[in-house]
Amino acid sequence: MKQMINFNQEGLQGLHFFTEGLNFPIAVGTYSDWEETQVSYFLSSTRNRNLNEEDICCWCVDHQIEYQIMYPVKRYSVFRNPYKYFKFLQLKRKLKIFVRSSRITK
Questions:
Q1: Using one digit for the tens of pLDDT, what is the confidence trace for 76-89?
Q2: Model's pTM, two decimal places?
């Protein structure tokens, strides 16, 4: 069976899952104490705010922390719920544009 989470196992210190109120769960992998501290600060500062998938992923890009959107892109999931797949593609496109723009400004 293929793994859903594809983080490098070497040096992985922690996994954090964001699921509440999101269309697509997001897994965040930490590899150092600094990254672990940053994620814990992020979790504590956003408890009362409603964040979407894009906010969480953009925060991870800004802080150079690995993340993964957990959505199985398989034939049955595409045909079963095409609107959700469309929203997934929109999110991926927005993140691609954000990553390009953040590289230019740095």
A1: 777 888 888 899 89
A2: 0.81
